[in-house]
Design a protein that fits this description.
The complex is a heterodimer of chains A (about 375) and B (about 90).
Chain A (H helix, E strand, L loop, with lengths): L9 H14 L6 E7 H9 L10 E8 L7 H11 L4 E5 L13 H6 L3 E4 L3 H10 L4 E8 L4 H13 L5 E7 L3 H9 L7 E5 H7 L6 H6 L3 E4 L3 H17 L4 E3 L11 H10 E3 L2 E4 L3 E4 L3 E3 L8 H4 L15 H5 L23 H4 L4 H8 L10
Parallel strand pairs in A: 1-2, 1-7, 3-4, 3-5, 5-6, 7-8, 8-9
Antiparallel strand pairs in A: 10-13, 11-12
Chain B lengths: L16 E9 L4 E5 L5 E5 L11 E5 L2 E5 L7 H5 L10
Antiparallel strand pairs in B: 1-2, 1-4, 2-3, 4-5
Chain lengths: ~375, ~90
């Protein structure tokens, strides 16, 4: 398909790898964080890191929305799923995320009506076809996914669907990035910016990174050539002594984002004062809640939600992985007690989590010769 | 029921799928779209002005977020001559 195949061309990939090699300064080490879980997945799926020089290291960031959901929110979701008459809907990889007493799949095995959907609009259709049931959608995701939830809520309102509600866990990307940049144990040279979040918010919100922290950002696509070119653009900035926001993903991302999506977000959501992130703790104004105008469609208003707070498991080092302080394989339980089938931490649960991506595609890459 | 291990969840997280518009239903703000391997889905088009049949949209969680090919190739693509043909829309 056009816009896909040409970005997987092996010959061009090798040419870009050669350009990258020619750009790096011998003896200097480079650490570049890919913010987005989708990037992490592509890097391992296509072996992008194997094409990079030995002194260029990719660090995996906090951009997997499943990975950052704290256990307490999962427990709250399970409590809702167990309410009589509720059909609880969510995206697929949320089903296996462990709360303190099990997963949503465990709740389903115990009799809860938990169903996977591909879109919140599917959940709304389910509500319309099941008028005697209460359908709850467990909303997760960054600014990429939030417009879909917002449009669904607007449709529910317009069509007068009263048995539909949303438990909102949407998060925003800039506050955790700022928190990461303030972290004293983090050493990064630049960022591969989240292409699909930028589709909605544009490139402008990332300008604080070069302005306040002097580090380059390149908004990137998700195909292997996109990632290689983005690394090259970051290294070019470093070589030139520049720090600015550049947009590699111009075939999708306008610098100003999608104004219609931003309008619908502003109409339906407002910022929460604070929200808990797994491994990162509470971060101010880092998540969305439904505005008062939509309170009747807010599952946390419609139902009694326990508001559980649970500490992360002691053995789990998801927090350090999310901050890029350690690599997935450096976690004490990686690949032994914690695997995709029996995950302890959320980075292993979600296919886009750094640990799962590494486990599935890159487990043996460290032993391969670096090109 | 759940995502296959090793597969990317097609809707959640930050996944975006390029899909070609096959048919439009402007009254309801919907489009029938087709993905890379022929998978078809109904897509909400409220966030993209003036969608037409045949163009490629970036779809996430059932909603079109962008139209592909609007932007010019980035400067670095033009500079990296060996790679330039990959970025021309």
């Amino acid at each position: 398909m056009r816009f896909v195949d040409e970005f997987r061309d092996a010959e061009l990939g090798r040419a870009l790898a050669a350009e990258i090699l020619a750009t790096v300064e011998p003896g200097r080490r480079y650490k570049v964080m890919e913010v987005c879980g989708g990037h992490t997945h592509s890097i391992y799926k296509y072996g992008v890191d194997d094409l990079l020089p030995e002194n260029v290291e990719l660090v995996h960031g906090p951009g997997c929305p499943v990975c950052v959901i704290p256990m307490g929110r999962v427990d709250d979701g399970i409590a809702l799923a167990l309410e009589p008459g509720v059909i609880f809907t969510c995206f697929g990889d949320m089903l296996r995320v462990p709360g303190s007493k099990g997963t949503l799949l465990d709740a389903k095995a115990d009799g809860a009506d938990v169903r996977m959907v591909y879109s919140p609009l599917d959940a709304l259709r389910l509500a319309k076809s099941s008028p005697d049931r209460q359908v709850v959608f467990f909303a997760i995701g960054f600014e990429t996914t939030a417009p879909s939830t917002a449009l669904t809520l607007k449709r529910a309102r317009a069509e007068g669907v009263r048995n539909f509600s949303v438990m909102c866990n949407h998060v925003t990307i800039v506050p955790p990035l700022r928190a990461l940049l303030e972290s004293p144990d983090l050493r990064l040279d630049g960022f591969i910016g989240p292409g699909h979040v930028a589709t909605v918010v544009g490139a402008r919100p990332f300008e604080f990174i070069p302005a306040d922290y002097g580090k380059p950002v390149v908004i990137s696509g998700f195909e292997p050539l996109d990632l290689l070119q983005s690394v090259h653009m970051i290294l070019r900035q470093l070589a030139d002594g520049r720090a600015q926001v550049e947009n590699q993903y111009t075939r999708v991302v306008p610098y100003e984002g999608n104004p219609a999506a931003l309008r619908v977000l502003a109409e339906v959501f407002e910022l929460r004062p604070h929200f808990e992130w797994r491994g990162l703790g509470f971060i101010s104004q880092s998540a969305l809640k439904l505005r008062d105008d939509y309170a009747d469609l807010d599952a946390e208003t419609r139902f009694e939600v326990p508001g559980v707070r649970v500490a992360d498991p002691k053995a789990c080092q998801c927090g350090e992985v999310l901050k890029g302080v350690i690599k997935p394989w450096e976690c004490k339980v990686f690949g032994t007690a914690c695997t995709p089938d029996h995950a302890i931490g959320t980075c292993m649960v979600s296919p886009e989590g750094a640990c799962a991506a590494y486990y599935n595609y890159g487990r043996f890459a460290r032993e391969r010769e670096v090109v | 029921m759940t995502c296959e291990p090793g597969q990317r969840c097609v809707t959640c997280s930050d996944e975006g799928t390029p899909m070609r518009v096959v048919r439009l239903d402007p009254r309801r703000g919907l489009a029938l779209c087709e993905a890379e391997r022929g998978r078809r889905a109904t897509v909400e088009t409220a966030l993209i002005p003036e969608v037409s049949v045949g163009e490629v949209l970036l779809v996430h969680a059932g909603v079109a977020l962008a139209r592909l090919g609007d932007g010019a190739p980035p400067p670095a693509a033009r500079a990296a001559g060996a790679a330039s043909r990959g970025w021309a829309p």
